[in-house]
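Dear support,

I submitted the protein below through the web form. The confirmation email said the job was done, but the results page showed an empty box. After a refresh the structure appeared. I'm attaching both so you can tell me whether what I see now is the final result or a partial one.
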Amino acid sequence: MSTRILEDKAFIRLMQLHIADLLDLLLQRGQFFSIYTNITQVTFEPPLPDAITQHFKIITPFSLYEYSFESASFDEENLYFEAGFGSENIGAMVTVPLMAIVQILIDETPIFINIAKEENQKIKEQNIDKSMNIFRSNPKNKNLIKD
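What the results page shows now:
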């Protein structure tokens, strides 16, 4: 199978629309669900303490049940919900870009898997930018790069 389609902008947009349609259906039907997300794209407001975030893995699950489910909403780009974290139940508004959703599950059954490669590309670009900034910050490397 050619994997180029997985990086195609039209395919990525189709996956994003499918995620939005599925979220809409689940929220309308009152169906609790879980998501697995690429945590590097998820934001928390207010930011969570490092003592909590240090335990997150690159693919992190979130369960939208009860209050988290009731607080959930979405737009074309993001899913939003409130959740409590840690033993102290520290509250935060969670923002998940739709394309950072890797999987959607009901109970333990996957009902959606996102195989588009957009997020992987963003992560690669961010890592390259970070590497270049580190490289540029060394004065000995200044003459090696033309801006």
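Response: this is the final, complete result; the empty box was a page-load delay. Helices lie at 9-29, 50-53, 66-70, 118-137.
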